Structures
1.
Amino acid sequence: MQTGDPYKILGLKVGATSEEIRSAYRRLAKKYHPDRNPSASAAAKFIEIQAAYEQLNSGQTASKPDAVEQQYRAQQAQYDQDLEAYKKQRAAAREKLRQQKQQEENYKIAYLQQLKSGKIGRWHRAVAVAGALLFLVLWIDFFLPKKQVPIRVSAYGLHAYSSVDGHLVQLFKSTDERAFWVADYLSQNLPKTQNLRSIETPWLHQVKALNFHDGLYELSVPIHFSFYWAQIWVSLLFLIPVLSWYLASADIIFVAGSFVSRYAILGFMLWFLVSENRFIHLLSFGQL
C-alpha cells in the first residue's frame, strides 16, 4: 500500500525545505491526531500524514504506511497501558488517603466520646457546673447594693509604689487582717480619720473603696489592685468550661478547651475560693 505523493499529502510543493515539511506536519498532526479528532477517517488520515512525513525525512520516494501504522498502534497500546497503570496507582493512593482520614476521624470521634462520657467527661462537667455557678455569683454580687463595713487600721507601709494609672500607693492593714492599697497621701492619715469604713460587695466582700470623714467632709477613695475592678472580666473565664462543653466537636478546639478547663480553670477557681476567705463568704451568703 503506497502513500501516494508525500508532498501532496502534506500540502507542499516539490522541493520544500525541511523546516516547511516539519511545519506542515505539525499543523496537520494537530488537526487529525486521534486525541484531538476521534473520527475513524481522521485516524487513517493521521497515519497517512505520518508515513508521508517519515518518507520525506528519510529521503525515500515511496513508502508503505503499514509499518508506520504498526509502530503507531504499538505506541498507542503502550500509552494506554501506562495510562491504565497510572489510573490504578492513583486510585490506590486515593483509597489509602481515604482510609487514613477515616481512621483519624474514627479516633477523634472515639476520643470525643471518651471526653464526653468517661471519667474525664464527668470531671469536665463538674468544672463546667462550678464555673457557671461562680459566674452567676460574681455577677449577682457585683450588681447588688454595696454595704459599708467599719474597719480599723492596724498598720501601714512606709514605702510608696506606682500603681497602673501612675498614682503612688501605699499598703495598709486593718485589724481584721485585710490589706488595702490606697493613695500614699492618705494611707498615713487613715488612723486619724473618723468612721473609717470599707465599701464592699455584700456576698464575697470585694472591696471597692474606703469611706471616711475628714472634718466636715465625707470622702471616698478607691482601692488600688482590688479584685472588684476585675470581677466581671474574671467571671468570663469561668464560662470557658461551659462553652467548650456545649460547643464540643471532634476537633482540637474541644480537646484543648477540655484540657484548659480541667486544669487551668479549675486551678484558678480553687485559688479564687481559698484566697481572701471567699469560700466562707460564698457558703455563708456574706454573713461571715
2.
Amino acid sequence: MKAILTHPGSAHKDDFLACCLLIARYGLPVWRRDPEPGDLDDPGIIVVDVGGEHEPERGNFDHHQFPAEHEPVCSLSLVLQHLGLYEDARTFCEWLEPTEWFDSRGPFATADWLGIERSVVNRLNSPVDITLLRRFAQKRELEAGDPVWEVMRMVGEDLFMYLRTLRERLDYVAAHARVLEVGEGDETLKVLYMPRTDPMPDDPSSGLSRYIEQTGAEIDGLIYPDRRGPGFGLSRHADNERLDFTRIAGEEDVHFAHARGFVAKTTATDLGRLAELMVRAKV
C-alpha cells in the first residue's frame, strides 16, 4: 500500500480521525490533494472524504455523493465500518454520532438535533481541536517522523485500544460481577459487586458503568477492588444521592471518604462488612 489521500484545504474532525485510524492501522503517509486520474482505481491508495465514491474494496471512503435524505454519516463512519469497529464505536463513543451530524448536516442542524442553542456548538471547541485541525490542514504531505503524523498515529492507536479493551473489559465484568441487595425493606440498595480476581485488571472499576448501561440493571452503588491497595472502593452509581460516603468517614476501616460523599476507600475485604458499609452510607 502506498498512501492515504484526503482533500486539501480546511480539515474537519471526520477526515482527521479517519486518517488517524488508517495511520495507526497501516502506517502510511498522508497526501492532502485532490485525486488524480487513476487514484480511485489504485488499491494501494486509500482515498478518504473526497472522490465521490464509497467502494471499500477499492479503498475509497467518501460520503459526499450520498443523497440529502441519507442518514447522517461521514468518512470516519465509513472507515470504522470497514475496520469492523463501527457498532462498538456507536455504542461506546458518545461523540461519534454528533460528529456524523456535524459533518453531514452542519452546525445549526446538529444543534437543533441535540436540543441546544446554536451558540453552544462553538463553545465546545478547544485549542486542542483548533490547533490539530489547523496544523493538519496546513500540510501537503505527512509521514512518519512528522510531529502531526505521530500525534495522529497516537490518536488512532488509542481509539483502537479503547474499543478493543472496553469490549474485553465488558466481557470480564459479565463473567465476574454480580448484583447484591443490601439492607432491608425500603432501605434496600442494589449494588454491583466486583470481586478481587487473580490476575487483577489494571483498573478494576473500568467498565462497570458501561456494563450497567448495557444490561439495563437498576444499580445504586458499586463495590470494586481498590487498585492502590488490598481493600475495596465504594461509590455511587450515576451520582445516586441515596448514598453519602461521608457518613462512614469515621469508621475504623475507612481510610478515605471524599468530602462530596460520592466515593470512599476501605481496607475491609469481607463481603458482609462491605455490604454493611454501603448500608451505613445510605441517606
